[in-house]
Amino acid sequence: MSHHLLLVEDETNIIEAIRFLLSREGWEVDTHSNGTDAAEVIRDLKPDIVILDVMLPGKNGFDILEELRAHEQTADLPVLMLTARGQSRDREMAEKAGVSRFMTKPFSNTEVLNAVRDMLCLHRQQS
Amino acid sequence: MTSLNVLIAVCMAYVALLFGVAFAAERAGVRGRADWLLRSPLVYTLSLSIYCTAWTFYGAVGNAARSGLEYVTIYLGPSLVIIGWWWILRRLVRIGRSHKVTSVADLISSRYGKSNTLAIVVTIMAVIGVTPYIALQLQSVALSLSIFSSAETGGVPDPETSRAGGLWIAIGLALFTVLFGTRNLNANERHHGVVIAVAVEAVVKLIALLAVGVFVVWGVAGGLSATMARIDASALGTWQTDGSRWATLTLLSATAFLCLPRMFQVMVVENDDERHLQVASWAFPLYLMLMSLFVVPIAVIGLEVLPAGSNPDFFVLSLPLSEGREGLAMLSFLGGFSSATSMVIVATLALSTMVSNHVVMPVFLYLRQGGATQSGDVRDVVILSRRLSILGIIGLGYIYFQASGGSGALAAIGLISFAGVAQFLPAMLGGLFWRGATRVGALAGLAIGFSVWMFTMLLPSFGPGVVFSAETFASGLWGIGWLNPQALFGIAGLDPTVHAVFWSLSLNVLGFAVFSLISFPLPLERLQGAQFVNVFDHSGQARGWHASFAESEDLLIMAQRILGAEEARHLFETQTRAQGMPGHLPEPTPDFLQRLERELAGSVGAATAHAMIGQIVGGTAVSVQDLMAVADESAQMLEYSSQLEAKSRELSRTAGELRRANEKLTQISLQKDAFLSQISHELRTPMTSIRAFSEILRDTDGLRPLEKTKYASIINTEAIRLTRLLDDLLDLSVLENGQVTLNRQSGNLGDLLDQAIATAQASEAREITIHRRRLDETITLNTDLDRLAQVFINLITNAQKYCASETPELRIEAARHGETVVIDFRDNGNGIPDEAREMMFEKFSRIGAQDSNGAGLGLAICREIMVRLGGDVSYLDDSGGTAFRVMMPQTLALAAQ
């Protein structure tokens, strides 16, 4: 079965790299590059997993995540957060906001793939 | 009994003579005649001899017969003072005269801010202290009378005669003092009558004692050499006096000479001319020497010739009597009588002035408060209160004489008095020489010293069982060991006199010093203190402000010192105009004085202002110079307090600056955190692409060649981006450290702008329409053109990136003002919000949160570059959009680098 993933990221080259990786696994990948309406788009598209950048134009990843968790529909949605800021406080903030997985850029392709696979399994077991 | 009757008749005649002399002197004084005598230094010196009372006349011989040479101390102390300490006396006399001081109490009270409490305390202490002394005189006259009568009857002295004699003598002395001591109302007017009488008595007692001495040496002992031989043979010369007692007695007599109310009376109050002290300084010691000349011979011969058990205090009398020389005995009696009466009269006079001025009058005025006090009224009351005081004081002496049994050794009684009045010394001398002495200190010292004296000397003098029980003497008050009146604090074994003087004076001095140091003087105390301590600086003659004009002038000078010249002049001029007078000095009317006082009170406080006006207008106690000194002092205080205010303003300004700096630092610190995140993001983002695509290239099989090329070129672009970022950071760091090397070139501004726009448009995709006026741009620049272009590129790129308009436009305007070139960059966007402007040129600052790609280094680099080029870049808030102004000199001064 095909899984549906949404990548929220504003850096074109990174979008291209992640899309390449995930598509090869046979998953359906959508992208969105603006923070302002990201939560809305996620609720509309209803992806199985969201990969979320922190520094986005309009609204940062933490705020978007909080918004998702506050909404019934997306309260349990698996979210993999990627950040380039690399400060320890960011991880705390992400966990507080209810992140599923947290990774610092630059990431290893394998790690990202494994993380997504894990999250998909967990997600399937839960539902 | 005939000779006793003759004696009494002679006494009467003598007293009548004294009355006559006193009366004549009084009349002469009033009419201003015989001034050469009344105001002569000789009379002054002789009047000082009231120091020699019956104690010295009779008691010295007794003292010598009992204790050997100890009697010398009583003469030594005053001689030392008048020879060695004449400058203290001069100061006392100067102060006494310029302040119209009437007594010791008045002196101490005026020094400490005219404190009434202090005056009352000193008065009471003086009365208590001098009472034994008066009793001593009564006792000596009464005993000498009874010795006369017993020599008559051949029996022992009859106590009844002596007691009755004491009473009559007391009454007679009171009468004389009342008649001659209270004729003048003004206490500080000279009592010429009394002084002349005292001088006559001084001559009489000297002649009497010398006559007895001559008689004893040549009449009884048989010549000078025989007398010397007898003295050598006597044990008297070998009696040793304890060193501490010797020193204590010398100190005591010196102190008493200064502090005794009657000494103060003749020395200071009755002094007509300061220069009299010069004569007195040699004549008085000479007088004392003559008085003491025959003391030892009389004592030695008396001990030898007279039957054992004779009272040695009266050898002077009993020796001639035993030899049958009644005439000489009578002269001797008159000498003793003179000594006693002169002392009692002057002492009572001095004390009554104190009692009436400091105790009775204040009470009377307090009780009469509200009722109009006619001057005649008060005059009668003053005279009455003085007369009653005289009676009361002599009465007290008589009571002490009766209570103490009239039997003590004269010297011992005298010493009690000496030690009592010695308690005035610290407050008196401290007040003359130490400006820091305060009222509280003086009160404390006096109270402590006097209490200790009462406890250790006066009360024990009545003997066991009268005031203190026998146990108190044995084991201390209430059985407390260290409260033993003769071994205070457990220090036993001292001579009782030494013990009492040591403790009372040292505790007195300690209390005076400590309480003066911890208390703060009142304004009037400060004034008086300055006046007393600096008496020779500016007292001169006592000043009176008779002319009202002079008063106004003084008031003006004082007001100027306090209010400032301008304000004082204005105040006075207004008042002068109001009074319809010419010039600038108004009449010192009560209205004006009240107004001035209010004005001054605003500056120096009500009390000081009141005192100042009062002193100038009332015109006695304080000199103008002292007021000026105080005025200067308060001007300094005002100056100081305004300095303090300025300091405090400066401090709060500094605190404000610190607060702002701190806020800025906090903001910078937050920005630094934000920058670290930002720089991390800026570095990690290209790295992420590089890593991701390099892993793809490495791990993915079967990539098409086109894909491989694409991914490799992404890696390449991102690596370049990374490099550029690092370059910017390094650039900024170099610029900030001032390590940059500028490279001056010559070029046209228009060409430079062309170049910058081209570069900006090539690196940033977003289009922007640029408006220029090429004509204005034909300016030749001599500066680092590459750096300047960097600034231009930055500003243009910023406009491209951040201009919020749908159709972004940038207007570039150049102008030259003399040597200065100004280039403005204005876009049609929304501008930069106010709160961001302050920090926009700081590095790492980014306008808006995280919605742009810049690292926040651009403007910081721009500013650094422009500063290096001797110019500046600033934000212009005169238009709707974002506008920057670049300013710089047309030619870069390399020397400045």
Rg of chain A, Å, rounded: 13 Å
Distance between the termini of chain A: 15 Å
The level 1 CATH classification of chain A is Alpha Beta
Helix content of chain A: 40-55%
What oligomeric state is this?
heterodimer
User: Which structural class is indicated by helix and strand composition of chain B?
Assistant: mainly alpha
Characterize the structure shown.
The complex is a heterodimer of chains A (127) and B (897). With 127 residues, chain A is an alpha/beta fold. Chain A has helices at 12-23, 38-45, 61-70, 88-97, 109-126, and strands at residues 4-8, 28-32, 49-53, 79-83, 101-104. Chain A has a five-stranded parallel sheet with strand order 2-1-3-4-5, sandwiched between helices. The two termini of chain A are 15 Å apart. Chain B has five domains: 2-90 and 117-365 and 378-408, no CATH class; 423-541, no CATH class; 543-622, no CATH class; 638-732, Signal transduction histidine kinase, dimerisation/phosphotransfer (DHp) domain (Helix Hairpins, Orthogonal Bundle), CATH 1.10.287.130; 740-896, Heat Shock Protein 90 (2-Layer Sandwich), CATH 3.30.565.10. Chain B is built from 35 helices and nine strands. Chain B has a five-stranded mixed sheet, with helices on one face. The radius of gyration of chain B is 51 Å and the shape is elongated. The chains are: A alpha/beta (127), B mainly alpha (897).
